[in-house]
Amino acid sequence: MKILVLGSGGREHAIVRALLRDPSVREVHAAPGNAGIAGDVPVHAVDATDATGVTELAGELGADLVVVGPEAPLAAGVSDALREAGFTVFGPSRAAATLEASKSFAKDVMDQAGVPTAAAHACATRAEAEAALDEFGAPYVVKDDGLAAGKGVVVTSDRAEALAHAESCFAANGTVVIEEFLDGPEVSLFVISDGTNCVPLVPAQDFKRIADGDAGPNTGGMGAYTPLDWLPEGFTEEVMAEVARPVIATMADRGTPFSGVLYCGLALTSRGVRVIEFNVRFGDPETQAVLARLRTPLGRLLMDAATGCLAGVRSLDWRPEYAVDVVVAAEGYPDSPRKGGAVTGVEEAEALEGVSVLHAGTATGPDGGLVAAGGRVLAVVGLGESLAAARERAYAGVERIRLEGSQHRTDIGLRAERGQVTVPAGEAR
Ligand code: AMP
Ligand code: GLY
Prior knowledge:
Elements: E1 2-7, H1 10-20, E2 27-32, H2 35-40, H3 51-61, E3 65-68, H4 71-75, H5 78-84, E4 89-90, H6 94-101, H7 103-113, E5 120-123, H8 126-136, E6 140-144, E7 153-156, H9 159-171, E8 176-179, E9 186-194, E10 198-200, E11 205-206, E12 209-211, E13 215-218, E14 223-226, H10 235-253, E15 259-269, E16 272-279, H11 286-290, H12 298-306, E17 322-329, H13 346-351, E18 355-359, E19 362-364, E20 370-372, E21 376-384, H14 387-400, H15 414-417
Parallel strand pairs: 1-2, 1-3, 3-4
Antiparallel strand pairs: 5-8, 6-7, 6-8, 9-10, 9-15, 11-14, 12-13, 14-17, 15-16, 17-21, 18-21, 19-20
Helix pairs in contact: 3-5, 6-7, 7-10, 8-9
This protein binds adenosine monophosphate and glycine (GLY).
Adenosine monophosphate (AMP) binds near residues 118, 179 and 265.
């Protein structure tokens, strides 16, 4: 199989590495990729959201499968253009990608499918926003209704701040979704679907805030780990039965079948599992940890999903180890990341046992060295026999990386390692 991967982040680097481990994959290409991806496979300077450019590239390469990494090309209809041109694509149509691109659409689908989620109101004016804030009370949750790279959500107990976020979305001609606050730990579960059938990957936990102790603003994600020993027995099966299968059946009924990865962002609240959001692609940085443990050949799996052949795939095969990844971000991330800083130490980190380094915002600088070219620069992945061992390896790798002013969290997986992650006790689960 010859596979073209679209995207340029750590998620795509993880996908490329996993595809290279699949014996049925003969060749992998990426567009546009990054400096790390370019070290592993040929990269092509084509913007992933440019449907014409991507379709031409797939044709020149004779790609058997195109894997769309990020949400932007999906929302831009790149998968539809590729399918129209006769290519096999892993990733949903633009219509199905609305599950991520519009939070109010996702709420509609969940309502129709009977999927548990936070009660919410779509608001288009200040008066509507005020009424919704007062109905739900603090803490307030205000979400930009469009794609915002994980940064469009404000969770605050300050009513003025909540209202100011809503006003800034209205000022940009947008609308907001205001919803009830969900207590309890968050879990990401990725479900691979062929439009009808689906199979889960392993649950992972992401750390969205920039600083230790979940302080500071939301980011795209600062680290992740898997497996989650603190999850209740039967968690994955419960999410498949109550969330993933009903949503996939509903999307098919609506005439917009969902094929690709359904990313279920969940909260384990005192009242049971609730959906926080859906994404329509693999999560970043959870994928870097999850795929580090995948034994099932990824190319075959994604091809089966893309061709409607998942019926026979009941479960996937996983390494027993724990995986932790820690994101190294540039100075100033998430507001105004500083680009161009020299990055060193990647080879030393990768030389450590159980450590790999996946690139995100990296490029080759004018003097041929590696430089930061985005907010999240690298993810350092540690694999180990316990969560403690995996953490130790990931952080030993992070120690080797040098980038002036860089930021990383020191507590990825720490509360789980200490047995401090708990699901709130509830009455009516
Ligand atoms: P989203 O873009 O919807 O994933 O939201 C980003 C982050 O905001 C989530 O990962 C949560 O940490 C937080 N969040 C979103 N919705 C809620 C909610 N209803 N209750 C509590 N936290 C939330
Ligand atoms: N890790 C959060 C996301 O990929 O949206």
